[in-house]
Amino acid sequence: MEIVDVLIVGKGPAGLSAAIYTSRAGLNTLILGCAPKVAGDYDIDNYFGFPETISGKELIELGQKQAQKFGAKIRCEKVLSIYQQEDGLFKVKTEKGEILAKAIILATGVSRIKPGIKNLSDYEGKGVSYCVSCDGFFYRNKKVMVLGEGIFAANQAIELKEYTPHVKICTQNKKITMTEEFKERLKKLDIPVIEKKIDYLEGKDFLERVVYSDGEKEEVDGLFVAMGEASSLDFAYTLGITRRGVFIEADAEQKTNVPGVFAAGDCVGRFLQISVAVGEGAIAARSAINYVKGLDRNS
Ligand SMILES: Cc1cc2nc3c(=O)[nH]c(=O)nc-3n(C[C@H](O)[C@H](O)[C@H](O)COP(=O)(O)OP(=O)(O)OC[C@H]3O[C@@H](n4cnc5c(N)ncnc54)[C@H](O)[C@@H]3O)c2cc1C
User: Whose CA is nearest to atom 30 of ligand 1?
Assistant: First the structure.
């Protein structure tokens, strides 16, 4: 299996800035991420050093070139989940395979999609979950549903099959974006994909059923939210990282509460600006460098 010193999730300003530092320090660095939202035809007027403005696209391309110049590898590949092994290494599951990393820098920005279910929050912890590896165990042989339209949802549903045979996916009326490979895997595992919208949830103390917008009801014990792509928040659930609303907690050195996992940029939620993401990326990199060098000294 591929093993790297530092795996950075996100190719935005925070991830690229971090990679410049970690690769310059000689660490084997891999960035997994595709073009961030800001890498379009937007004028960036407030980033230091560009009095004539620069487009987001150009800024990201320059950052990418700079990180690659120092040896960082960059791949447009979606991360589905991250777990820490008993030996301390992080196993990163992507749409294409698995990679081991000594340290992780989360730089995924914020992209949590609201599912649009009226009373969803009333059932959080009472049937509604955001993490299969945390809560799947509680739904052994029960009826569960995963909410989502992409490979993140497909992967969560496949993981749930380890706990129960009764797994379905509901796309919440969104266009299905999962690849043919994942569609095939769902078919083989007998996981149906329902293209409907859940309007609200019902149940006395715990979730008992979902009510679709056409009025139809379906008995469900557990609803796992996995819309869009996996975010830092989803990785935080599985790794046990402290969260603050939709953001994850990091200290002044960009360390999370899990040794070896660092976070930078919009996913930390301080001031959602490029300059801040770049600065936090640099700090996260310094912390990751110290962490990996410490591991190497002790091994
Ligand atoms: C249209 C627009 C215009 C803006 N204009 C300005 C401006 O003028 N000035 C300014 O300072 N700020 C501006 N901002 C804000 C700025 O873009 C953000 O603060 C900054 O990009 C945050 O950087 P980041 O690296 O934290 O996250 P992002 O730039 O959001 O990058 C996130 C990265 O994570 C990747 N990712 C997410 N999930 C996964 C996953 N599961 N697997 C793999 N990769 C993943 C994405 O593909 C992406 O590469 C603008 C934002 C937008 C959207």
Answer: 109
